[in-house]
Amino acid sequence: MSYHFGRGWSKLTPYLLLLPGLFFYFLISLGPSIATGFFSFTDATGIKGAPIRWIGLDNYREFLFMGRASLDNLDALKRTLIFSFVVTTVQFTLGLIVALIVNQKLKFTNIFRTIYFMPVILGVVIQGLMWSLFLYPLGGPVAKFLALFGMRSEFLGGQPTEAFAWVIFVQIWANL
What we know:
Elements: H1 13-39, H2 58-65, H3 67-102, H4 109-121, H5 124-134, H6 141-148, H7 160-175
């Protein structure tokens, strides 16, 4: 087996080419993350010249266990974990199923491919506009569908639990 980059110092070429990218990764991404982790254990205020003291886990204790804000923080953490789990699980499962369907020779495959790849083509603003019109309670397609069953929704997606479910659905649809 021959090595494509030659012998001696030529073997270092791919590694030398990686160095600028790694440098910028550490500088732009990893550096601020490490600094944030460090400052989360201090009482840093961001005011120039103010002393910084090490306080350990007090910030985390306050964030998770002290006062009314901690309940809101725990609720936000719970919603984030639910969102992450549901979107990741459903998105990967449906992605695999859809990939299998797209590669089959079935009827209406081209229509299905068009619907499937629409989020890739559409921008985020167009997607938001499209979904707001789709869910519009005064004549949108969902409102008309609900009217067939004698139901109506004045605030479709307006309740927090309903809106959260729609956010999960649209996220899965957009990134499937």
